[in-house]
Amino acid sequence: MNTSNNNYASSPATTPESSIDEEKFLVPYQISSKFKKKWFRLANTPFGILAVSFLQVIVHIFSTQNIQKSLRFEPDKKIELWRFFTYMLVHDDWYHLMLNVVIQCIFAVLLEKRQGHLRVLILYFLGGFTGVLGAACVHPDLVIGASAGVYALLISNVSDIILNYTTVNYKIYRATSIGILVLFDIIYNIVHVYLKKQPLISWEAHFVGGVAGLLLGLTIYKGSDKYQATANRTLFWISVIAYAVIVICCVILTLQIQKCTPPLHYKYVYFC
């Protein structure tokens, strides 16, 4: 079997004098490397959430009790603003830590690939901030754990689907996996409360973090479909206003609670 100058293999049915029109129906013997799919691409690695997860593991291993006390959220120390974010670094045990780390890394892979590392990190921490702010309105107690940020990441997948509905792949699978995880968490929380186990789960942080993730996703994430530009712009402004209203109401309510109640004596540590 001979090969022509155009990188096509000549079969017995053709001769070296065959025309280009005849040869283009034959199979090329060499495929350019740029068309080969790589099983791993460095650009798809969720460096943002991986860095946060690594820091959470380091804090869990090496932090002392005093360090954890300075990082966790305490309602009567709202002036120490870092606590609204650093509480996400502290976890109750290895099961609590690894559950949050695994889920946030799984969902960050696709989100950071599509939306970028910075957008996903901003959403993650703002979701954690809003979640603990909402929890302080219902149960003003100690809070640790990153589940508010994890829920923000989880539900922000819905925002990504909405903003890119005609172009995003695997919509049904992504929506189904989100629904299953949320349903499982609701059942787990109900059983946990029914059995009166401690530490208690801050379902308020989960819920408010999820709502924040939806609104922040519609605000921060980008849409790639030009035919949805008008609808996406409308969703952007609705989400900005709704998120601002939620944060302002939570701030006013927590300040009012602090003003009208005596000094708090903590009974529980709520983890999320």
UniProtKB/TrEMBL annotation:
KW Membrane (keyword) present: yes
Protein's cellular compartments: Membrane
Keywords linked to the UniProt accession: Membrane, Transmembrane, Transmembrane helix
Domain of life: Eukaryota
Stored InterPro entries: Peptidase_S54_rhomboid_dom (IPR022764), Rhomboid-like_sf (IPR035952), Rhomboid_IM_Serine_Proteases (IPR051739)
Metal-binding keyword on record: no
Record Pfam families: Rhomboid
Coiled coil: none
Membrane topology recorded in Swiss-Prot or TrEMBL: Multi-pass membrane protein
GO terms under cellular component: membrane
Residue ranges crossing the lipid bilayer per the database entry: 42-62, 94-111, 118-136, 142-163, 175-195, 201-223, 235-255
GO molecular function: serine-type endopeptidase activity
Span of domain Peptidase S54 rhomboid: 80-221
UniProt record similarity statement: Belongs to the peptidase S54 family.
Protein name (Swiss-Prot/TrEMBL): Peptidase S54 rhomboid domain-containing protein
